[in-house]
Amino acid sequence: MIPEPLTERERTILLATVDNYISTVTPVGSRNLARHGGLGLSAATIRNTMSDLEEKGFLQQPHTSAGRVPTDKAYRLYVDSVAGCRQKPPPVVRIMQLVQEDPVLDIMLRRAAEALGVITKELGVGIAPVVGEGVLEHVDLIRVSSERIMLVLTIQHGLVKTIFVELDSRVDGAQLDWLASRLNERLCGLTLSEIRRSASVRLKQAVEANDDPLNIFVQSADSLFDLEESSSDLILGESSNLASQPEFKHEQSLRSLIMLTDRKHHLLEVMRRRAGDEGLTITIGSENEISELSNFTVITDTYRFGKMKGIIGVIGPTRMSYSRVISVVEYTSRLLSEMLGKG
């Protein structure tokens, strides 16, 4: 979204309007801004400038006699303006206490999302690391029924993925161990992306006979190691943090929040695409990819787990304390990366 050129006065009045609206959640009038905005301008001058800003798409009036509120376009200019003016995050000790280290990644990630929600009063959100660049460390085969085994993939730093495979019941324990040994020999030390591309060829070279059970893995390698994330990989904090915001006091607004948190698959897709980027990403209202997020701002940052990247951040109304929320999200992502690095 390319902002329309603004005069210095327009820019000053617009930023003051956004600041005022973020603080009060009340449409901003020219008289109020003249009295309390510290701009040194008359109400008439501010009113005329606000009218120009409305024509340029930066402000809108919810009602004819009401003051004005910022549009997504105004919030974008505001965010770009405060990008270098981060507020200090809350005390380090408080975030550390809320996140805490835990050997289980999902627990640590959930705590980080919940901590973000508590501190920012928004909806904390995160996804587990996208495993494509994770290095396979070990393969285990565990029989779970007469004709079914569980393929357990241990990826770097103890991240575990499981896959169920149909296998002839005549394959006994010794054969299962030999099968696992060859899988380890051929695939360990490679990233999941490399395995998806070359597993079929690598495993075919180890096949010993036509009835070798390894053929099952050769034939299904392309799909077997395509470990797409499921909705369970999306972590959401407490939606009650958002529900308490003034924007959600009306039934329709609250319904849009419930609909958003119910459609986890859509949210997961959005977050997975962000994992391909590096660093902070902010999308405001109509800038978001899915309609369910058209009334929300999404602020996320990447965290690292070895060579893998995940996402941690918040979802909130377009009216939020941007400089404060941005600093908390950035700090939490760095803290999470450091804690995971220790593992």
List keywords for this structure.
Beta-Lactamase; 46% helix; 5-stranded antiparallel sheet; alpha+beta; Enolase-like, domain 1; Arc Repressor Mutant, subunit A; 10 strands; 343 residues; 3-stranded antiparallel sheet
What is the CATH domain class of the largest domain?
Alpha Beta
Count of separate DSSP helical elements: 14
Multimerization state: single chain
- Our count of domains comes out at 3
Largest sheet: spatial strand order: 7-3-10-9-8
**Largest sheet data:** 5 strands, antiparallel
User: Could you say which overall geometry the principal axes of the C-alpha atoms support?
Assistant: elongated
What is the structural class? alpha+beta
Q: What is the beta-strand fraction?
A: 15-25%
> What is the distance, rounded to the nearest whole angstrom, between the alpha carbons of the first and last residues?
41 Å
CATH topology annotation of the largest domain = Beta-Lactamase
Q: Are there runs of 5+ residues with pLDDT below 50, and where?
A: none
Work out the helicity level. Answer: 40-55%
Mean pLDDT: 84
CATH superfamily of the largest domain: GAF domain
CATH architecture of the largest domain: 2-Layer Sandwich
